[in-house]
């Protein structure tokens, strides 16, 4: 390669910085980071997961996840409870009322972020990019093969 900009890792990294910056700005009014949003999103889909299940879904290590859960518990969004099956070695993570109430607002904020980038790229190019990035992301994770669509809210934002 002749230039740094010809390196896929560099270009993806720069794009990731832009998306993360926009996400941080959108979530900041709620006091939530993009990674905390991801944890909340997973728990809105299925509350009561254990740490290992969250790590697997978000592809994070257990030390990182433990620190995130600690901070989110302190923030009042989550709580740990004993495993209902009686396994004393494991706790499960549940949304608090405060965490559950954030769902609509945070989803709307992230829909706006997604729509911002889809608008900048154009819908066709954005869909192609999304498929390409998912293909790269799924290379080492064969069980993840679904393609999330741009939400109806994000599409509506595009037409406004």
TrEMBL record:
Check the record and name the InterPro entries matching this protein: HTH_MarR-typ (IPR000835), WH-like_DNA-bd_sf (IPR036388), WH_DNA-bd_sf (IPR036390)
Q: Its domain of life?
A: Bacteria
The answer to whether UniProt assigns keyword Transferase to this entry is no
Pfam families in the record, alphabetically? MarR
Q: Taking every annotated instance into account, which residue ranges of this chain make up the domain HTH marR-type?
A: 5-138
Q: Keyword annotations for this protein? A: DNA-binding, Transcription, Transcription regulation
Quote the Gene3D superfamilies the UniProt record gives.
Winged helix-like DNA-binding domain superfamily/Winged helix DNA-binding domain (1.10.10.10)
What the entry lists under PANTHER family is as follows: TRANSCRIPTIONAL REGULATOR, MARR, TRANSCRIPTIONAL REPRESSOR OF EMRAB OPERON
What is the recorded name of this protein? MarR family transcriptional regulator
């Amino acid at each position: 390669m002749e230039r740094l900009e010809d390196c896929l890792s560099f270009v993806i990294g720069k794009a990731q910085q832009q998306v993360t910056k926009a996400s941080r700005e959108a979530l900041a009014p709620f006091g939530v980071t993009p990674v905390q949003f991801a944890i909340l999103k997973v728990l809105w889909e299925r509350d009561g997961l254990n740490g290992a299940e969250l790590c697997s879904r978000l592809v994070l290590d257990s030390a990182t996840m433990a620190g995130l859960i600690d901070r989110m518990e302190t923030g009042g969004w989550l709580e740990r409870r004993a495993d209902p099956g009686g396994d004393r070695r494991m706790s499960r993570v549940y949304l608090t009322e405060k965490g559950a109430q954030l769902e609509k607002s945070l989803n709307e904020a992230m829909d706006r972020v997604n729509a911002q980038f889809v608008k900048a790229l154009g819908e066709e190019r954005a869909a192609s990019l999304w498929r390409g990035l998912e293909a790269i992301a799924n290379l080492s994770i064969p069980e993840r093969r679904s393609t999330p669509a741009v939400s109806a809210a994000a599409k509506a934002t595009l037409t406004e």
